[in-house]
Design goal:
single chain; alpha+beta; Beta-lactamase; five-stranded mixed sheet; five-stranded antiparallel sheet; 20 helices; elongated
Amino acid sequence: MSDENRIRLISSQPIRGRILDKNGYVLADSRVKYSLILKPQSVKEITWEKQKSNISGLFDLDINVIQKKYFDGLKNQKLSLTIIDDLNVDQLIKFKENEDNLDSFEIATKLIRNYPYKSVAAHVIGYTQPITDSEFKFLYNKGYKLNDLIGRTGIEYVYEDTIRGEWGGEMVEVNSLGKFQRSLGIKPSTQGNDIELTIDINLQLVAEEVLKDKKAGAIIVMDPRDGAIRAMASKPTFDLNFFSKEFKPEKEYNKLFNSPEKPLFNRALNAYDPGSVWKIVTALAGLESGKFPSDTILDTKPCITYGSQCFREHNDLGFGLIGYEDALRVSSNTFFYQVGYGVGVDKINEVSRKLGFNSLSGIEISEQENIGLVASSEWANEGRGWGEPGQTPWLPEDIASMSIGQFVVQVTPIQIARAYAVIANGGYLVTPHLAKNDREYLSNKKRIKLDIDPNHIQLIKSGLRKVVESGTGVSINYGVSNLPPVSGKTGTAEDGEGGSDHAWFVCFTPSEKSELLIVAFAQNTPGGGSVHALPMAKEILRAWNEKK
């Protein structure tokens, strides 16, 4: 007890490690925040009126607000209270120049998390918050202190143990009056390790820019060879620095957490109707089943009846007799209805699972990820997730919808990126990743060679090349010079939840030995993938090609 009375521990806060892009640009670091504080119990009444007036004049503050804070502090026995939370340089200099006449006020320093690019890659980087009382009960064993920061989402959360560092401190001896006597020893705080990402800030900034005029959407830029994410943007987004504020205004808080626009929601990892970008799955199901071999020619019509409904061709005319490549080039619905109906729901489901659908992608920030839905006859018989088993059987109408990626298919942009990477890289299912670890992601564990006929993959690839040469994606070539050959697919999807159509465009380049893959998604943006999603991808291709 005697030792406890005379020994004090002064803690020193660790500096969290930085988060860097692939070229070393800082996406997150720590900075010192300076706050103007008042210690109400130490105020000298004789000089208070003058000091209060001086502070009011220096910083243009309402003198009544200062007085109210002072009284509240006394009433609640607070040791200190904040007058100005985050001083800028000019304010700091003003205080220093006048501090001889302001002995009731002090400057408090605190390390806070800082995000130089504000809202850029916010969903990837994530944010930190102080730990709660309930968390402290089990986190104090790991060296956390009450109100210590902890990663809540994104990279900040996933790599918390690597980034956070360790508290240090100085043990000092004091006398019975609490006066300092001597230092008994110092244990320096340990700085956290930096995390280097695969993100390229140049491409990330373009991805954020092209989404600005969209209501909502997502962009993913990925290396199809190993799954390295070069950019991941989600709209709407939010300023990560909001979470570093001591005081969070209610209006700003509600805009983040209670807004119907859901800015915290990572749309790159959320599930939507894919529309025609799904047609490569139906095509592979037809080819792999053997029922619709590579030389298949089908008669496309104005509409084909399944169950009680006639499912239309998007041009209401049909395209005559065509094969796989031209069906992809013109994005024929009736071609893929016939293939889908011929192979059946479970073959499409089987092929989709090989391509990574209906499961998590493996990306580190999986706490934000949705596995989506790819229907099967078993799923329908078990109640479709909402009904009684045996009461919601598979219907003929379902297969038409499924064949072109509607209603009974919900997929995420990251799943689409993985599936198209299989076509781009010649048959490997890659694991998308954000942290730099070059060798691991080319290993057999992270890059799986799929049991799919290479000739079938090559046929799909040829069809996707035709889309850009003379099909629905031809406008990717307009206004961009010296671009390597591009392959891709447009998609326009009805929103299963009743909103406006979604617009999709997926592409990879160069068409052979691809180095870059882009998924562009505009949520509830009617008008078509070639009108709204393709131009976004084009700007990213332009930037990538120029900065090569």
